[in-house]
C-alpha cells in the first residue's frame, strides 16, 4: 500500500508526526509526502514498526523509486507556474 500526502504549512507537522505514526501502526508500507511550497518529495518505507526515509529530493532533482512501482519525476514538475 502507498499513501501520498500533499503537505501544506498548516498540516506539515501533523503529516510528519501523527499521521506517520498512525500509518506505521496500520502497516502501510510506503508513505510519500509532497510539499508544493519547497517543492519537494520525501519517500518513506516501513521497516519494522517505524518508517525509514528512502529518498528526499527538492526542486529540479529527480525523484526515482522502483518500489512500490517505478516512477521518476522532479518535484518542480508538480507545481504550476
Walk me through what this model shows:
The model has no long low-confidence stretch (mean pLDDT 92). The protein has a single domain (2-78), classed as tt1808, chain A, CATH 3.90.1570. The protein has one helix spanning 12-25, and strands at residues 2-6, 30-35, 40-47, 50-58, 63-65, 71-73. The chain is globular and about 35 Å long. It contains 1 helix and 6 strands. The strands form 2 sheets. It has a 4-stranded mixed β-sheet, with helices on one face. Strands 5-6 form a two-stranded antiparallel sheet. Helices cover 17% and strands 42% of the residues. A hairpin with a 5-residue loop joins β5 (63-65) and β6. The chain is α+β, with helices and mostly antiparallel strands.
Task: Please identify the top-level CATH class.
Answer: Alpha Beta
Oligomerization state: single chain
Q: Could you estimate the helical fraction of the residues in percent? A: 10-25%
Strand order, main sheet: write it out. Answer: 1-2-3-4
The secondary-structure element order is EHEEEEE
How many distinct helices? 1
Shape call: globular
Largest sheet: 4 strands, mixed
The total strand number stands at 6
Structural class: alpha+beta
What is the end-to-end distance? 31 Å
Which CATH architecture?
Alpha-Beta Complex
